[in-house]
Design brief:
49% of the residues lie in helices and 11% in strands. By secondary structure, the chain is an alpha/beta fold. A five-stranded parallel beta sheet has the order 2-3-6-1-7, sandwiched between helices. The longest helix has 46 residues, at 309-354. α3 (83-93) crosses α5 (136-145) and α9 runs parallel beside α11. A hairpin with a 2-residue loop joins β4 (149-150) and β5. The structure holds adenosine-5'-diphosphate (ADP) and magnesium ion. Residues 272-304 are annotated as: Disordered. Residues 42-170 form the ORC1/DEAH AAA+ ATPase domain. InterPro entries: AAA_22 (IPR049945), ExeA_AAA_ATPase_DNA-bind (IPR052026), P-loop_NTPase (IPR027417), XrtA-assoc_ATPase-like (IPR017466). This is ORC1/DEAH AAA+ ATPase domain-containing protein.
């Protein structure tokens, strides 16, 4: 909608984790290096954790995009898989037929497939996204899969990406064997204020923007304060800011323009009313547990039991509220567009009468 107005050739803040938009912030660069280091080691597990929207899937996709020949990769995004389902899914991702086969048939076929790859001078990589959803026994199955070896070299390597809940899972007492196989782990932090600005500028230019600076430095600060440097939030907010700018025919954005949009989206981004954050979160100190073994077993995995009725009721109420918000937002947008059309029509009538 606003692309033409700002001279863009695509939408700069799409939510799809598109590798061509990859911005190498300090933490993204570091996580990418760990993954590449892991690849060069050709064994063990690499674990990347980070909050929702910090860029884990984007990193995985960028890695797959830049993957060297000779590595056959498969990516799984896991709902709660049982060990058997995991084995099935891994096999089908590597295009091994699984229909009607027993687990031990599938494991046999998988080993055969991996051995054949090895004979062709290739190896296999499994990227497991949203790995915090995996039950402990499924992670253990993953470890078993990494036991397949040929001449002392593992045939399948796995990378795990997941939200913070993954850390206590891996720290569980019975995960010791898995832990010993972790080559490196890294936690993705949000962007710093400077990176937030650089990220926005990078995405705008990548989408073809070539005009003057669009945002004042106060506007950038406001964007950072509201999004706390989380790329997914930045994308959502920026998309709305550009839409607002187009509707209001703005050529540049100051703090007030950003503030107006922040007010509009605060509810949608699930912040309690009038609770737009004022202070950015203190920057997370780089934890040195980034390297190798996670801390000793202290945390406990969340129990996987059913939640009670009140929980689901509360969730449904939240969902209804969110849908109500979405509808009222659509109404607002339609009004905006009406206003814009009227404005354009008046200009048209005026120009016509000048003729
Ligand atoms: N380093 C990055 N470069 C470019 N875009 C990014 C980067 N990190 C995150 N994003 C964007 O932020 C959004 C959320 O990223 P995503 O990878 O889905 O997060 P996660 O998997 O951690 O929840 C996506 O729209 C993605 O395009
Ligand atoms: Mg993701």
């Amino acid at each position: 909608m606003y692309e033409n107005y700002y001279g863009l050739n695509s939408k700069p803040f799409q939510l799809t984790p598109d590798p061509s938009f990859f911005f190498a912030s300090k933490w993204h660069k570091r996580a990418m290096s760990y993954l590449q280091y892991g690849l060069s080691q050709a064994e063990g597990f690499i674990v990347i954790t980070g909050d929702i929207g910090t860029g884990k899937t984007t990193i995985a996709n960028s890695l797959l995009d830049a993957m060297e020949a000779g590595i056959v990769a498969a990516q799984i995004v896991t709902p709660k898989l049982t060990p058997d389902e995991l084995v099935k899914m891994v096999a089908s991702k590597f295009e091994i037929p699984v229909k009607g086969s027993t687990k031990s048939d599938i494991l046999g076929d998988l080993e055969l497939f991996l051995t054949q790859l090895h004979q062709q001078g290739k190896r296999a990589l499994l990227l497991v996204d949203e790995a915090q959803n995996l039950p402990l026994e499924t992670i253990e199955e993953l470890r078993m899969l990494s036991n397949y070896q040929k001449n002392g070299k593992p045939l399948l390597q796995s990378f795990l990406l997941g939200q913070e809940e993954l850390q206590p899972i891996l720290r569980a007492p019975n995960m010791e064997q898995f832990r010993q196989r972790i080559v490196a782990s890294c936690h993705l932090s949000p962007l710093t204020e400077n990176e937030c600005q650089a990220y926005i500028e990078y995405r705008l230019h990548h989408a073809g923007y070539s005009g003057n600076t669009l945002f004042s430095s106060d506007a950038y600060s406001k964007i950072f304060v509201f999004t706390r440097g989380v790329p997914r939030k930045i994308n959502t907010l920026m998309d709305r800011i550009l839409l607002y700018g187009f509707l209001e025919e703005l050529e540049t954005f100051d703090e007030d323009a950003v503030e107006a949009v922040v007010k509009e989206v605060a509810d949608e981004m699930f912040l309690p009313e009038n609770k737009v954050p004022e202070e950015p979160a203190p920057e997370q100190a780089p934890s040195d547990a980034q390297h190798a073994a996670p801390a000793p077993a202290s945390g406990e995995a969340k129990p996987d039991g059913l939640k009670d009725v009140t929980y689901y009721k509360a969730m449904l109420t939240e969902l209804t509220d969110a849908l109500d918000d979405a509808i009222s937002h659509k109404i607002k947008l339609t009004r905006y567009i009406d206003k814009l059309l009227k404005k354009k029509y008046r200009t048209y009538v005026r120009l016509k009468s000048d003729d």
